[in-house]
C-alpha cells in the first residue's frame, strides 16, 4: 500500500508495457481492464464476484450517478466505495461523453453543457468545475477531466474546434481538482483520426501536467483499422512514465491490438452487456448461447476456462435459462465474460514480462480463427 498515486513500468516488449499503478486503495496491475459499474454496480455481479475474476479497479459513471442517486447523497453515505461495497480503486469518467450521447436538449458553450436528464427531463449543468466537484463527492481514486467527444466521422474543423475546447476545459479541470494527495487526475487526448490534432492535444495536456493520460475520441464509429492507425502513433505523444488509458475499448482483439501499441488501461461495457444478451466471449471467439445448436450440448462454454459458469454448468443449461428468461443466465454469462477478459489481461501481462508477446498474440488469433467447437 502507498499513500500516493504512482506508476511503475516493470517490463516492455516492443511498445507494450506491463507494470503497476500504486494507489492508497490497492495496486492496479497493467495492462488493466476495468469492468464498468455505470450506476454503482457491475450489472448482474456482486462486487466480490467481480474481484474474484481478477479485476483490480472498476469504472463508475459521473453522469448517471449525478442524476441518480445524486453525488451529494453518495457522499453523505460514505462515498462511492462504501456505497457499492467495493474498497479497491475506482475511476470515474467525467460525464461528458454521456451528456453528448444520452441527454436531450443539450446546449454547449465555452462554460460547459446545459442538458435535460434522460430520466426525468430535469435541467442540469456540467462544466469542468462541476464535474470535478461531483467526482470529489463520489470519492473516486482516478478522476477524468471534463471534455467533449464528437462522434466520428466528423469534418476536421469540427474535430479541431472540439479538441481545443477540451484542452481549455482540461486546464480548468486541473485548476478545480487542486491538490488531492492519494487521488489522480487524468487528461484526455482528443483529435479524432488526425495526427497533427492528436499531437497538438498531447502537447497541451503535457504543458498542464496530469497523473495519467487517456486517448479519447476513439471507438466512436471510426472502425478498428482507423483506431489502430491512431494508436500506432498517439501513445508515443504522451509521457512514457505515466499510465495511458484507452477509453471505451473494447472487443478482445481491440484490447490485444491496443496493448501491442502501448496502452495500459481500458474499459468497456461489452463483457457485461454481452452476457445479458446471451453472448459469451471464449478463447475460440464469440458464442451465441441462444442458438439451438447448444440445446443438447453437455459441454462447458469454454473447456479451458475456470469460471463458475464453465466449472458447473453445461451449454445446454445456459441455453435453457437464457431462453426461459431466468436471471441466472445473465449472471453466469457475465461472470464468464469478465473472467475471460481478466484472464486475457493476465496472459498479456505475463507474455510482456517474458518477452513473448508476439507468440502470445499469434496464438490468440490462431485459436480464435479455429472457431467454436462443433455440436455433439
TrEMBL record:
Boundaries of every tRNA-guanine(15) transglycosylase-like domain copy: 15-368
Keyword Transcription regulation appears in the UniProt entry: no
Annotated EC: 2.4.2.29
Catalytic site positions: 93 (proton acceptor), 267 (nucleophile)
Cofactor(s) in the UniProt record: Zn(2+)
Enzyme class: transferase
Gene Ontology annotations for the cellular component aspect, listed alphabetically: cytosol
Keyword Manganese: no
Family indicated by similarity: Belongs to the queuine tRNA-ribosyltransferase family.
Function summary: Catalyzes the base-exchange of a guanine (G) residue with the queuine precursor 7-aminomethyl-7-deazaguanine (PreQ1) at position 34 (anticodon wobble position) in tRNAs with GU(N) anticodons (tRNA-Asp, -Asn, -His and -Tyr). Catalysis occurs through a double-displacement mechanism. The nucleophile active site attacks the C1' of nucleotide 34 to detach the guanine base from the RNA, forming a covalent enzyme-RNA intermediate. The proton acceptor active site deprotonates the incoming PreQ1, allowing a nucleophilic attack on the C1' of the ribose to form the product.
Protein name stated in the entry: Queuine tRNA-ribosyltransferase
Organism this protein belongs to: Paracoccus amoyensis
Gene behind the chain: tgt
Amino acid at each position: 500500500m502507498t499513500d500516493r498515486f504512482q506508476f511503475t513500468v516493470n517490463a516492455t516488449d516492443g511498445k507494450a508495457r506491463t507494470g503497476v499503478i500504486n494507489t492508497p486503495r490497492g495496486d492496479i496491475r497493467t495492462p488493466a481492464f476495468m469492468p464498468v459499474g455505470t450506476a454503482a454496480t457491475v450489472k448482474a455481479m456482486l462486487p466480490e464476484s467481480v474481484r474474484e475474476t481478477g479485476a483490480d479497479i472498476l469504472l463508475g459513471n459521473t453522469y448517471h450517478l449525478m442524476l441518480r442517486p445524486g453525488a451529494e447523497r453518495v457522499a453523505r453515505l460514505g462515498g462511492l466505495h462504501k456505497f457499492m461495497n467495493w474498497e479497491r480503486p475506482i475511476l470515474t469518467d467525467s460525464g461528458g461523453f454521456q451528456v453528448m450521447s444520452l441527454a436531450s436538449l443539450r446546449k454547449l458553450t465555452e462554460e460547459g453543457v446545459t442538458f435535460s436528464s434522460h430520466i426525468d427531463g430535469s435541467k442540469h449543468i456540467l462544466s469542468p468545475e462541476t464535474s470535478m466537484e461531483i467526482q470529489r463527492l463520489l470519492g473516486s481514486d482516478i478522476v477524468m477531466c471534463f471534455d467533449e467527444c464528437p462522434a466520428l466521422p466528423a469534418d476536421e474543423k469540427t474535430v479541431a474546434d472540439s479538441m481545443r475546447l477540451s484542452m481549455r476545459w482540461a486546464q480548468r479541470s486541473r485548476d478545480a481538482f487542486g491538490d488531492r494527495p492519494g487521488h489522480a487526475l487524468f487528461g484526455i487526448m482528443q483529435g479524432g483520426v488526425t495526427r497533427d490534432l492528436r499531437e497538438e492535444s498531447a502537447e497541451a495536456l503535457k504543458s498542464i501536467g496530469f497523473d495519467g493520460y487517456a486517448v479519447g475520441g476513439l471507438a466512436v464509429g471510426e472502425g478498428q483499422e482507423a483506431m489502430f492507425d491512431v494508436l500506432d502513433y498517439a501513445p508515443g505523444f504522451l509521457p512514457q512514465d505515466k499510465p495511458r488509458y484507452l477509453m471505451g475499448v473494447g472487443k478482445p482483439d481491440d484490447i490485444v491490438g491496443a496493448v501491442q501499441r502501448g496502452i495500459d488501461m481500458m474499459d468497456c461495457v461489452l463483457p457485461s452487456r454481452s452476457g445479458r444478451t446471451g453472448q459469451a466471449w471464449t478463447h475460440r471467439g464469440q458464442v451465441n448461447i441462444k442458438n439451438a445448436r447448444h440445446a443438447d450440448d453437455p459441454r462447458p462454454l469454454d473447456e479451458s476456462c475456470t469460471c463458475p459458469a464453465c466449472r458447473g454448468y453445461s451449454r445446454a443449461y445456459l441455453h435453457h435459462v437464457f431462453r426461459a428468461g431466468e436471471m441466472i443466465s445473465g449472471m453466469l454469462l457475465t461472470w464468464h465474460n469478465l473472467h475471460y477478459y481478466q484472464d486475457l489481461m493476465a496472459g498479456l501481462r505475463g507474455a510482456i514480462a517474458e518477452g513473448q508477446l508476439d507468440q502470445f498474440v499469434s496464438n490468440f488469433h490462431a485459436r480464435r480463427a479455429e472457431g467454436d467447437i462443433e455440436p455433439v
